[in-house]
Amino acid sequence: MTRATFIAAIFAAVSMAFLWPLSAAENAKPGLAQTIVIDGPIGPATSRYVSEALTTAGDRHATVVILRLNTPGGLVTSMREIIANVLASPIPIVGYVAPSGSRAASAGTYILYATHVAAMAPATNLGAATPVQIGSPLPGLPAGDKKDDDVLAAKIVNDAVAFIRSLAELRGRNVDWAEKAVREGASLSASAALQAGVVDFIAKDQAELLDEIDGRTVDVARVGHVKLLTRGLPVETIQPAPLIRFLSIITDPNVAIILMLIGIYGVIFELSNPGAVAPGVVGAICLVIGLYALNLLPINYFGLALVLLGIIFLTVEAFNPTVVLGLGGFVAFLLGLATLFKVEAPGFELSWAFVGTAATMIFGLIAFVGRGLMAARRRPARVGAQAMCGLSAEILDWRGGAGHVLVRGERWQAQGDETFTKGEIAEVTTSKGLTLLVRRPPGFTASNGEFR
Q: Which of 41, 140, 237, 334 is most buried by a 10 A CB count?
């Protein structure tokens, strides 16, 4: 062995002696359990929150993600986006219906079936996964053809059954009950779900849940079989960003409609009163936010067109009362709201009490404004050429069919077909630019300017 080789060997041994404890310490570093909380209806904001939270959990090298559920259900599109993220996650995801008193109904049942491990807290329930009927007629109106409705409902249910069965087969859970939850709307308590093989564990809290799943092996996307080492892991909750909280508020259908109304009437007020600024700014912001919220929701653009058309008709009625436009706009507004949303999922229903209140307020506003305009039309004009008609004018000087007159203390140029003398009283018939056209009024004498 040469001297250089000997020195290199010693250097390598010393380096390993220093680096090995650091590597061992790094490997011995405890992992982390991240919690994602779904509390409330599942919508676009929820799916975005879950997607961003899973990315955050990956960046923090989380050992496991606990997806805590307490939901009545929600939109199918958002549910499928969440399930797609769960199935593609390289981190094991534990679905956990908690705390006690919570539920994973409708869309929540599908999501729980998609997780790698499913658990429930005592006194919780899941199920009632039947898809909600698409669309809804106006109250009191007859529904469409029953045969066509039955065929459409069967297609929707069969698609939902195939989807939840595929999730149950993937995770090795009770397939038959999953189908029953969709077709019959069946539900189960936590203990019954454990006995039926729908969930894997019952745990009182997250600490007990981590102890229960410790040592369990799950199949994770892009990773393969992973053994969970979760006992005693520290738990952190990933909070939704402020933007996601804002989205959860504006994607409520009733809030979106209110924003639309505020936006449209704010812009109209600004156009009718140029220079006010504030109504235009607030209205434009609310209008853009309302349109963005509707874009995130599954809307029917035919219904949206009817809503906008109704508001336009009502606005025109306010400035030009005709009754016909007002009634047409009122009907178009109601029909548009009735057909605006394609689905009525839990937490995303359009309140008919709100619809009636909004329609009544709009109709009352239009009636109030229209009444004011009609009263204003009946009053005599106070400015412009019409306001000058019929006023008395004192002749100041007159020559060759033209001269100057005094009207309301102001000196005006005047023209007329008759001959006047200074001090005589004439009547203004109209104005031509800044020149008044005058005549000798009937009932006046030329000598003293008094009535006969």
A: 41
Q: Check residue 73 and give left, alpha or beta (phi > 0: left; psi -120 to 50: alpha).
A: left
- For 219-278, write each residue's pLDDT tens digit: 998 888 999 999 999 999 999 999 999 988 998 888 888 888 888 778 777 776 777 778
Measured between alpha carbons, how far is 301 from 342 in angstroms, rounded to an integer? 10
Of all residues in the chain, the percent with pLDDT exceeding 70 is 79
Domain with CATH 3.90.226.10 in the chain: 25-241
- Token code pair at residue 321: 């009362």
Exposed, middle or buried: residue 256 (CB in 10 Å: 0-12, 13-18, 19+)?
buried
Closest CA to 321 of 271, 264, 380, 363: 363
**How far is 47 from 44, CA to CA, in rounded Å?**
5
CATH no. for 384-439? 2.40.50.140
What average pLDDT does range 158-171 have in this prediction? 94
3-state helix, strand, coil in the chain (%, to 5): 50, 20, 30
What average pLDDT is seen over the chain? 81
Name the token pair of 176.
């038959």
Three-class secondary structure of residue 386 per DSSP: helix
- pLDDT value at position 8? 46
User: Distance (Å, rounded) from C-alpha 438 to C-alpha 430?
Assistant: 7
In DSSP notation, 395-422 reads EEEEETTEEEEEETTEEEEEE-SS---T
What radius of gyration, in Å, describes the C-alpha atoms of the chain?
38
- Answer with the residue of higher pLDDT: 420 or 143: 420
Question: Quick one: residue 10, left, alpha or beta (phi over 0 = left, psi -120 to 50 = alpha)?
Answer: alpha
Q: In the structure encoding, which two tokens stand for residue 402, read together? A: 């033209």
What is the per-residue DSSP string for 8-46?
HHHHHHHHHHHHHHHHHHHHHS---EEEEEEES-B-HHH
What pLDDT does residue 35 have? 96
Residue 271 contacts by C-beta under 8 Å, 6 or more apart in sequence? 280
Q: Residue 378: is its pLDDT beyond 80?
A: no
- In this structure, which topology does domain 25-241 adopt according to CATH? 2-enoyl-CoA Hydratase; Chain A, domain 1 (3.90.226)
Q: What is the pTM of this model?
A: 0.70
What does the alpha-carbon distance between residue 348 and residue 444 come to, in Å, rounded to a whole number?
75
Enumerate the CATH 2.40.50.140 domain ranges in the chain, comma separated. Answer: 384-439
